[in-house]
Amino acid sequence: MTEKSEWKTLPEPAPGPLFIVSMWRGGSSLLYALLNKHPQVALMFEADLLLLRPVFLKPARICDWTQRWEFWNQTFSRHGLDPTEFAGVLPEFRSVFETVHQEYARRKNAVIWGDKSPNYHDQLLRMAKDFPHARFIIVWRSPLEMIGATLRAAATGSRYFRKRGMPWRSLLGYRAFKGQCSQIISAGAAVHQLHYEDLVSDTAAVMQKVCMFLDIPYDHRICTLEGADRSAVYAGRHHNLLRENDIVAGPRRDVIEPSLRRRVMRYVNLWRQIDAGSYDTFPHGVPTSAELQLDQVRYRLFRALDALIRLGFCFLPIPLLRLYRQIKGHGQEGDASSSSVEFSTLPDIKS
Q1: 326 belongs to a structural domain
Q2: Into how many domains does the chain fold?
Q3: 35 phi and psi, to 5 degrees?
């Protein structure tokens, strides 16, 4: 970690973190790779410390947050950091978050620090409360395209995206994401919204607006993936396009079954009605009351399981978790998001 005597020679970090957030397969990884090429920006890739927050409930003398964080998603090794260098940091969530993320930015002499993750999509309110000076870049992608991308990722062999219930986590989580975004905007948070479709089709225009939002000079080099640092990105074939130099804007292979497509469209129609305050009719209609109730129960069960697994990573003995990985033959895949590791350690819930 940078010695305090050297801090005076480095630029002052921004007063709060920058968060890039989307739904899974929503385009945040592309924006991360482009924006991180800017000399004033150094974001971490799905460090996701907020999801391990319960680990800081432990007394300071036994708070093993560095070991837990590295074991869970290899944050330190992926970002070229040594966890032992942070041994003296106060074991409190905000102190740890700021110290680690700012140190990563300092090594690039960058002023803008923070994290990119789809796993924050339903944590925006908590993040805005924890970091009053935080800025948010929200990346939207149409639910059909997002779910299609999720299914294509599953077809590449990603265990994370093959989990049962992933389409419903994405679909109903999208609405939760939308609601929390509106709430933090109403509360006065600094938020910039963009659409993935615009990012891939008119990259320069989108990135110019992003730089204006961040109050940094525009650099034309951030409009191409050529030379982007993707060393912190998880392995996995579904990230192959991210590792190319060209941004692909063309149509993708349609893998959504007709029945799932109709069901997704019914939810999109319902949300259009609610947002417009009208009762216009659409092809495929809207979900029935029974569908709404059943899907909400299913979604909450999945998210409760997600939270339970994270608790396990905070409190269960690491040797036990490691043994379970060995027995299941999962290892540390890192094939999707940071949660790909946590979800590989427990069986799926059936939908």
Answers
A1: yes
A2: 1
A3: -65, -35
Q: How many residues does the chain have?
A: 351
Pinpoint the alpha helices (H) of the chain. Answer: 4-7, 28-35, 65-73, 75-78, 93-106, 124-130, 143-155, 166-186, 196-201, 203-214, 258-276, 289-315, 318-328, 339-343
What's the rounded Cα separation, in Å, for the pair 23 and 287?
A: 22
Instruction: Quick: pLDDT tens for 140-174.
Output: 999 999 999 999 999 888 888 888 889 889 999 99
Please report whether residue 98 resides in a domain: yes
Cβ–Cβ under 8 Å, residues 105 and 39: no
Comparing 187 with 244, the larger pLDDT belongs to 187
The one-letter amino acid at 239: H
| Single-letter residue type at 349 | I
Partners of 114 in the β-ladder: 18, 43
Q: Write out the residue range of the structural domain in which residue 198 sits.
A: 4-343
More confident residue, 308 or 236: 308
Q: Do the domain assignments include residue 351?
A: no
Contact between residue 314 and residue 52 where contact means Cβ atoms under 8 Å apart: yes
**Cα atoms in the Cβ-side hemisphere of radius 13 Å centred on 281:** 2
Neighbours of 71 (CB within 10 A): 18
Looking at residue 52, its amino acid is L
